[in-house]
Amino acid sequence: MGNVYGYIRVSTKGQKEERQLAAMGELLIPARNLFIDKQSGKDFERPNYQRMLRRLKKGDLLYVKSIDRLGRNYAEILEQWRILTKELGIDVVILDMPLLDTRRGKDLMGTFLSDIVLQVLSFVAENERSNIRQRQAEGIAAAKAKGIKFGRPLRPLPSNFQQIYMKWRSGQMTGTAAASACCLPMSTFLYRAKLYEKSNSV
User: Fold this and answer.
1) 186 with 175: CB under 8 angstroms?
2) Entry pTM
3) How far apart (Å, rounded) are the C-alpha atoms in residues 42 and 35?
4) Which one has a higher pLDDT value, 55 or 43?
5) Which of 38, 47, 33 has the alpha carbon at shortest distance from 14?
6) pLDDT digits (tens, 9 = 90+) for 68-94
7) Could you tell me which of 78, 118, 179, 185 has the fewest CB atoms within 10 Å of its CB?
């Protein structure tokens, strides 16, 4: 019997992992074998997931609360499942989906059913992620249509901006000198100059 591990993921630092921790606690997984990431599930470049991969050995057992805690990218979930079960030779148990338990059904039919369930659930997880992105985009578009502006409001332009801008545009000053005269970083000066041109071209 190998070691028992648990993997927990929440999407942001503000989200709580108590529900997943409680589920792992019932399995008596040693604290040193619990790996927690507070990061998006869009890919597997997560520090603690990668640390866990380096620890896993053939015969180990990995628990995950649900398939979307493992990840949200359909293709990458399938690839990681292959790495975990085929390359590393460990067993994986998805607690919320008993069919996704590689300790059971080691025969051809069991493996076939597990693969089908995994593909369906991975697709559902990614589809939900796509729906969230679409709803966010639609919400932002609707807000912009109502005139709602996003981001911090721009600071007022320096009182000498127009004078310096005209000298810069006519070639009397370099961009560096113009930005310095306005007490602005070069990138900010160029950005505000572009906005100034746009607002005065209407």
Assistant:
1) yes
2) 0.58
3) 18
4) 55
5) 38
6) 888 877 778 888 888 898 889 899 999
7) 185
* Mean pLDDT calculated for residue range 27-34: 90
Residue with tokens 């007490």: 183
Instruction: Respond yes or no: is residue 114 known to be catalytic.
Output: no
Residues 6+ apart with CB under 8 A from 42: 71, 72, 73, 129
Q: What is the pLDDT of residues 123-159, one digit of tens each?
A: 776 676 677 777 777 777 777 777 666 666 677 888 8
Spatial distance between the Cα atoms of 9 and 68, rounded to a whole number of angstroms: 9
Q: Which of 11, 40, 66, 180 is catalytic?
A: 11
d(CA 101, CA 111): 10
Distance CA 202, CA 103 (A): 69
Evaluate whether 12 touches 38 at the Cβ level (below 8 Å): yes
Q: Helices marked H in 146-174 — which ranges?
A: 161-169
Assigned fold of 4-131? Rossmann fold (3.40.50)
Higher confidence at residue 187 or residue 140? Answer: 187
Facing residues of 92 across strands?
A: 62
Work out the number of other CB atoms within 10 angstroms of the CB of residue 145: 8
